[in-house]
Amino acid sequence: MIVIVDERQLVKDGYHSLFDREGVASAGFGPSEFGEWVETAADDDLKSVRAFLIGDCSSDMVSPRRIRDRSGAPVIALSDQNSLENTLKLFEAGVDDVVRKPVHIREILARIAAIRRRAHEDANFTEIGALRIYLDGRDPEINGQLLPLPRRERRILEYLASNSGRRVTKTQVFNAIYGIFDEEVEENVVESHISKLRKKLREKLGYDPIDSKRFLGYRLIVG
């Protein structure tokens, strides 16, 4: 999930629509409500955040360093001002990157992926036997051949890969894929997506790489 912080509702709605087209969950906050949320949100909710995008808002209300106290997700400033002074000010405030608008949504996602790679010092893919899972939005490969997946199934596979070896609950998967504030979709939709994903992986791999246990959740089998 991507969290967008901006005083302008039109901006938040616009980014939400663009991320949705890419199959990425997002949530928008005004500066004051965001400050309260980031300090009181449950740890599992914050773990579902891939990045924070900070737009037009007061630095007194939205502090990157306060975000860093609760989450290690990238903090990216969306800047309307094309000036060196403003860019340096934003970096000094603690952001990980500054993006000048207008910017394509895929560039934002690419920057998020690059920051996360540097932070974790790992590659942008995970390999499990013949399966290669990319963490930047590309379809996975099996024995070098692309396995086209619907965006929700692809995002679930990416999320499981990013938590490789660890078990995640249905709620955690839902929050990461649909966002923690999506009340229009039932959480049980995760079971349907994972069932379809497992069937496709079994057909290509000859085995099921997703281990599931009732009440405990899902885990990608890494070895």
UniProtKB/TrEMBL annotation:
<feature type="DNA-binding region" description="OmpR/PhoB-type">
    <location>
        <begin position="123"/>
        <end position="222"/>
    </location>
</feature>
<keyword id="KW-0805">Transcription regulation</keyword>
<dbReference type="InterPro" id="IPR039420">
    <property type="entry name" value="WalR-like"/>
</dbReference>
<dbReference type="Pfam" id="PF00486">
    <property type="entry name" value="Trans_reg_C"/>
</dbReference>
<dbReference type="InterPro" id="IPR016032">
    <property type="entry name" value="Sig_transdc_resp-reg_C-effctor"/>
</dbReference>
<dbReference type="InterPro" id="IPR001867">
    <property type="entry name" value="OmpR/PhoB-type_DNA-bd"/>
</dbReference>
<feature type="domain" description="OmpR/PhoB-type">
    <location>
        <begin position="123"/>
        <end position="222"/>
    </location>
</feature>
<dbReference type="GO" id="GO:0000156">
    <property type="term" value="F:phosphorelay response regulator activity"/>
</dbReference>
<dbReference type="InterPro" id="IPR011006">
    <property type="entry name" value="CheY-like_superfamily"/>
</dbReference>
<keyword id="KW-0238">DNA-binding</keyword>
<dbReference type="GO" id="GO:0006355">
    <property type="term" value="P:regulation of DNA-templated transcription"/>
</dbReference>
<dbReference type="GO" id="GO:0000976">
    <property type="term" value="F:transcription cis-regulatory region binding"/>
</dbReference>
<dbReference type="InterPro" id="IPR001789">
    <property type="entry name" value="Sig_transdc_resp-reg_receiver"/>
</dbReference>
<keyword id="KW-0804">Transcription</keyword>
<dbReference type="GO" id="GO:0032993">
    <property type="term" value="C:protein-DNA complex"/>
</dbReference>
<feature type="modified residue" description="4-aspartylphosphate">
    <location>
        <position position="60"/>
    </location>
</feature>
<dbReference type="InterPro" id="IPR036388">
    <property type="entry name" value="WH-like_DNA-bd_sf"/>
</dbReference>
<feature type="domain" description="Response regulatory">
    <location>
        <begin position="1"/>
        <end position="116"/>
    </location>
</feature>
<dbReference type="GO" id="GO:0005829">
    <property type="term" value="C:cytosol"/>
</dbReference>
<keyword id="KW-0597">Phosphoprotein</keyword>
<protein>
    <submittedName>
        <fullName>Response regulator transcription factor</fullName>
    </submittedName>
</protein>
